[in-house]
User: Fold this.
Amino acid sequence: ITACIDRFNLTPEQRLKKYPFNRARQIKLVSFSQKEYTSECILASVPIKNDTLSMSSVKGIAKLTKSQIDKLTDILFNVGLKENLYTFSVSTAVGIDGGIIFMDSKNKIFEYINICFDCQEIEVRTSKVRKSIGLPCIQKMGMLKFFFIESGLTF
Assistant:
């Protein structure tokens, strides 16, 4: 993971038009009481069954307000790598600390972002989201972790 800066200057309106924010009726942050582990060297996934969050390992949930969504989209879409670098790294970390879940008008989860702060990894459900938020960088991960904590969640 490399350093990043405030690279883009998208307005709140432009950011809200990006997937998955353009489809979400509700956005929530989730933290987990214990790390979710798998036997594979990939991030564990937000525990979702039948488009609903499984509460078994959830430590906290925060429903985001409009101003919090504005701050989250600013971090995700305006902070990026200093240069047009494409990096590939293999992580042996397998935990997940938190997630961002996107709910539709029927209160069903249609998209999510997995975050492992310890291993500095972000995993998304679809490539549409990866193209929007770009690759993780050091400052973006720190800003996201602080945002979770500021929203009242602990790990």
Notes: The helical segments are 12-16, 66-78, 127-133, 138-150.
